[in-house]
Amino acid sequence: MNQRQLFLQHVGQTSPAPLALEIVKAKGTVLTDRKGKTYLDLIAGISVCNVGHCHPKVVKAIRKQAGDYLHLLVYGELVETPQVAYATLLTKLLPSSLNSVYFTSSGAEATEGAMKLAKRVTGRTQMIAFNHSYHGSTQGALSLMGDEYWRNAYRPLLPGILHLEYNDPAVLDFITTDTACVLLETIQAEKGVNPPKKSWLTALRKRCTETGTLLILDEIQTGFGRTGHLWGFEPFEIVPDIILLGKALGGGMPLGAFVADKALMDQFTLNPVLGHITTFGGHPVSCAAGLAALKVLLKEKWISEVPEKEALFRELLVHPAIQAIRSRGLLIAVEFESFEVNKRVIDRCISNGVLTDWFLFGSNCLRIAPPLSISKKEIKKACSIILEAIQSEYLR
Ligand SMILES: Cc1ncc(COP(=O)(O)O)c(C=O)c1O
């Protein structure tokens, strides 16, 4: 059997038609397959590789940490320098009430931890989530997921979760003194880039404060410069009670986190002690990698260049087959008439050396979320390949 067949046979599969490209090297914005073919990466591992693949400073930090120590003990017992340094820098860059970082191994675990914390802090169990939201695939996070198609096969899930409409003012009436938390993506990514109205988010914040409900923002796709701000919530001028981090947090290594005020986080230390535990959460190599990646992001001009790069994509991607483009920074959805059209465009892009895909709840939308380090020359090249793919579909 060749590699591809072994992959299909022995690696647990998630769809009947995986991309199954055999990538052997990744550097910056370029992936190279076994035959030497290169792909310009427009998806960055789904908003993970914001500083590009294998940034030399990230790789150096991983090598250094691997030479010092790997796993030592379960999370929270020992003073591990990479964790401490990373938590310190993250909290320095966040509002002062987000000052305690609980590291996990994934985004879904960050969601789980935050849900548990909301229960402990408020003594309530009801939660509000939104249609077309995605917060992870574990059963708590899945209970929040905003689509019955994916939830239904795994029932029973957590009770007491209301799924409401994002941006709907009526949501305010559902937030009461029984609500533990309102949990939402700062921008709904998998819906195909659905941002909140500022007035709506402000009203949510106010209503949560009035009712003692925690406002939890999922920054797993929107964090680390993706929207042109270090944190996606910055332009909305509100401060959430908890944020969820993941994806780019680890600089290409597995890492998640939820961040809250220490007074809230301390709930996990009592009644019961060890209220939330993990063996590998905040792995020292992941923290060293994430810290190095964040330092690169702060040093480079990539975040400030996001708006011009976003504008360049929008300026170049003009075609009658494009029904809409929605974007917030370098999180861009290009909408077509149907999934079938989108899929043929995506397939042609991939065979012509541009890696892209669709969105979970926006299957007719093509995803553009490249490493923030992408150059203008690469954007022009990517857009000409996308336009050629659209045109060939158009002329079908
Ligand atoms: C917004 C959002 N939240 C949470 C998650 C879950 O993260 P993970 O896949 O690391 O569990 C994802 C993953 O795609 C996501 O996009």
Total count of strands: 15
Order of helices and strands: HEEEHHHEHEHHEHEHEEEHHHEEHEEEH
Spatial strand sequence of the major β-sheet: 4-10-9-8-7-5-6
> How many independent structural domains?
2
Determine the fraction of residues in helical runs and give it as a percent range: 25-40%
CATH architect. name of the largest domain: 3-Layer(aba) Sandwich
The mean pLDDT is: 97
**Alpha-beta content class:** alpha/beta
The fraction of residues assigned to DSSP E strands is 15-25%
Fourth CATH level, the homologous superfamily of the largest domain: Type I PLP-dependent aspartate aminotransferase-like (Major domain)
CATH names the topology of the largest domain as Aspartate Aminotransferase, domain 2
The largest sheet, given as strand count, sense and whether it forms a barrel, is:
7 strands, mixed
Keywords: Aminotransferase, Pyridoxal phosphate, Transferase
InterPro entries: Aminotrans_3, Aminotrans_3_PPA_site, Class-III_PLP-dep_AT, PyrdxlP-dep_Trfase, PyrdxlP-dep_Trfase_major, PyrdxlP-dep_Trfase_small
Organism: Flavihumibacter fluminis
Cofactor: pyridoxal 5'-phosphate
